[in-house]
């Protein structure tokens, strides 16, 4: 489990295309400290498994399903990525519960800079709109953010200078894709309410 608090801005150093997958090599001095084979690291909000680790770099395999459901397929050598290690047991939950399981992708629709923050407008797939509410939580490229406005096909977030400086959202331009993970609690509530209404999954 992750919290959506990005630890560092890493970089793709190599991409190997396989038959039905690809292998990334990534640089991240902070997240590779103490890393070992089999550990999990979130890359732009996608939970990946460390295959190999050497110095301040690690490799991770990405299967076709992940490439199809996320924006990782658009990454190339030199791309900057948000990196986060799983939350340690007993640590503070600074963001919100993030699984690292991307629900879909959106695109940057526009940016409105101001003196102390920036409003970013992001497209929202129709099948995810019911999970996104004003002042609710959403994960964008692995970053835990609070929704400012929520429409049927878009939402906005307000970014402070620290987020702009230390994550990929400071680099993204209009049209760029982003990974989206909605609040998992909303999905569980929907399923439970649906089961109660239909009787499915209810023990007599």
TrEMBL record:
SUPFAM superfamilies: Riboflavin synthase domain-like
Reactions this protein catalyses: 2 6,7-dimethyl-8-(1-D-ribityl)lumazine + H(+) = 5-amino-6-(D-ribitylamino)uracil + riboflavin
Catalytic class of the enzyme: transferase
Signal peptide: none
Keyword Transferase: yes
Record lineage: Bacteria, Bacillati, Actinomycetota, Actinomycetes, Kitasatosporales
Domain Lumazine-binding: 1-96, 97-193
EC number: 2.5.1.9
Role this protein plays: Catalyzes the dismutation of two molecules of 6,7-dimethyl-8-ribityllumazine, resulting in the formation of riboflavin and 5-amino-6-(D-ribitylamino)uracil.
Name of the featured protein: Riboflavin synthase
Pathway(s) where this gene product acts: Cofactor biosynthesis; riboflavin biosynthesis; riboflavin from 2-hydroxy-3-oxobutyl phosphate and 5-amino-6-(D-ribitylamino)uracil: step 2/2
């Amino acid at each position: 489990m992750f919290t959506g608090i990005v630890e560092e801005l890493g970089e793709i150093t190599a991409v190997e295309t396989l038959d039905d997958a690809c292998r990334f090599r990534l640089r991240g001095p902070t997240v590779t400290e103490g890393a070992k084979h089999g550990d999990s690291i979130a890359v732009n909000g996608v939970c990946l498994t460390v295959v190999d680790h050497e110095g301040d770099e690690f490799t991770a395999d990405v299967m076709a399903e992940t490439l199809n459901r996320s924006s990782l397929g658009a990454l190339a050598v030199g791309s900057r990525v948000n990196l986060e290690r799983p939350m340690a047991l007993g640590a503070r939950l600074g963001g919100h519960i993030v699984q690292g399981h991307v629900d879909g992708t959106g695109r940057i629709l526009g940016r409105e800079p101001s003196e102390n923050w920036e409003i970013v407008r992001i497209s929202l797939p129709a099948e995810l709109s019911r999970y996104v509410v004003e002042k609710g939580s959403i994960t964008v490229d692995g970053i835990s953010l609070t929704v400012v406005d929520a429409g049927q096909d878009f939402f906005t977030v307000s970014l402070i200078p620290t987020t702009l400086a230390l994550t990929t959202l400071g680099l993204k331009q209009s049209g760029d894709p982003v990974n989206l993970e909605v609040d998992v609690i909303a999905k569980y509530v929907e399923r439970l309410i649906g089961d109660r209404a239909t009787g499915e999954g209810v023990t007599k």
